[in-house]
Design a protein that fits this description.
The structure is a single chain. By secondary structure, the chain is α/β, with parallel strands linked by helices. The protein has 2 domains: 99 residues, no CATH class; 119 residues, 2-Layer Sandwich (Zincin-like). It contains 7 helices and 10 strands. A hairpin with a 4-residue loop joins strand 7 and strand 8. The longest helix has 16 residues. It starts with 9 loop residues before the first strand and ends with a helix. Bound molecules: zinc ion (ZN). The site of zinc ion has 6 residues, from loops.
Length: 283
C-alpha cells in the first residue's frame, strides 16, 4: 500500500486508482527537487475534447499576484496545460515557483488561498481543497489520445535485448503484473564511440510512465541479468515513495535499496557493473 508523505499528494480522477508523485530520475544524477501533484489521465470516453485556450500573460500575472498576496517570499507562477502535472512546486530560499494547470486561472478566493498554503508548506488541508477543485474541473484537463499520453516512438526491441519481454517477465515475477509503464531503448548514438564520464543507465518519467534504458546496455558483452537489474530499479520507482528530507528528494531510500536487493541477481549485477564500468562508459 502506498502512503502519501507530506510532500507527495496523490490525485486521482473518476475514483480510479491514484498514481504517486514521481519525477524523472536516474541512478547517478538527480534533478532539482520539485514537488509535483500527478494526475492520472481522465477517462478518454468521457465527454469530448475541450478546446485548450491559450493562457494570456495578463491572466498569468493576475493569478501570480492573487496567490502571492498570501505568501511570504517571491512567487513565480507558470500556467500550464500539462495533464499529468496539475501542480508542481519548487521551493527555494524566499522563493517559490509554481507550475499550475490553467484550470486555476479563475479559481475562487478560497482556492487561491489554499494554493498559497500548499505552495508555502504543502498543507494537508489545503491540498484536500485543491483535490476537490481538480475533481470538479477535470473536464478542463486535456483528454488523451487512445494511443497514449504523448507520441513517443518506442523502440523496445534492441539488437540484443527485447526490453518489453524483460519488463513483462519482471512485472509478473516481482510485481504481480501491477507496474504500468512503457519501456524503450534510448536514442541510438551516431558518430564514433568515445569514453564518457558517466552513463545514465535508466530513467523513469512519471509524465509519460516511461522507462528508458541506455543504448549502451544493448551490447553483446552485457549479461541479461544486468539489463534486468536496471529495468527492475526503474520499475521500483513506480512503487516507492520519494520523501523530502531537508528540502531534498530522496529517490533511493533505505526501503528502496532493500527492495532493490530482492532481485535475484542484485549482487551479481552490482559486481558486474563494477568490473565492467569502463566498457559501459565507452559508447
Ligand atoms: Zn533510481
Amino acid at each position: 500500500m502506498r502512503q502519501a508523505t507530506r510532500e507527495q499528494l496523490l490525485f486521482g480522477f473518476n475514483g480510479r486508482a491514484v498514481m504517486p508523485l514521481r519525477r524523472r530520475h536516474h541512478p547517478r544524477r538527480s534533478r532539482a527537487p520539485r514537488n509535483t501533484l500527478v494526475a492520472r489521465e481522465p477517462d478518454p470516453r468521457q465527454g469530448h475534447l475541450p478546446l485548450v485556450q491559450k493562457i494570456d500573460e495578463a491572466a498569468r500575472l493576475r493569478l501570480q499576484r492573487r496567490i502571492g498576496a498570501h505568501l511570504r517570499g517571491d512567487l513565480r507562477v507558470v500556467v500550464t496545460d500539462n495533464r499529468y502535472s496539475i501542480i508542481s512546486v519548487k521551493r527555494g530560499k524566499g522563493y517559490f515557483e509554481a507550475r499550475l494547470h490553467h484550470m486555476f486561472v479563475d479559481a475562487e478566493p478560497g482556492i487561491v488561498r489554499a494554493l498559497a498554503r500548499f505552495i508555502a508548506r504543502n498543507e494537508a488541508e489545503a491540498s484536500a481543497l485543491i483535490n476537490a477543485y481538480i475533481d470538479k474541473h477535470q473536464d478542463k484537463i486535456r483528454h488523451s489520445l487512445p494511443a497514449g499520453p504523448r507520441k513517443i516512438k518506442l523502440t523496445p526491441q534492441g539488437q540484443f535485448f527485447d526490453l518489453e519481454e524483460i519488463f513483462d517477465c519482471l512485472n509478473q515475477r516481482y510485481f504481480g503484473g501491477h507496474i504500468e509503464a512503457s519501456i524503450t531503448w534510448g536514442r541510438r548514438r551516431t558518430g564514433p564511440a568515445r569514453r564518457h564520464g558517466s552513463v545514465k543507465m535508466g530513467s523513469y518519467s512519471v509524465e509519460d510512465q516511461l522507462i528508458r534504458i541506455h543504448i549502451s546496455l544493448d551490447r553483446s558483452f552485457v549479461p541479461r541479468f544486468f539489463v534486468e537489474a536496471v529495468v527492475f530499479h526503474e520499475m521500483l520507482h513506480q512503487v516507492h515513495e520519494i520523501p523530502v528530507v531537508n528540502g531534498r528528494h530522496h529517490f533511493h531510500t533505505p526501503a528502496f535499496r532493500a527492495h532493490e536487493r530482492t532481485f535475484e541477481w542484485a549482487e551479481a549485477a552490482e559486481r558486474w557493473e563494477k568490473e565492467n564500468l569502463n566498457r559501459l562508459l565507452y559508447f
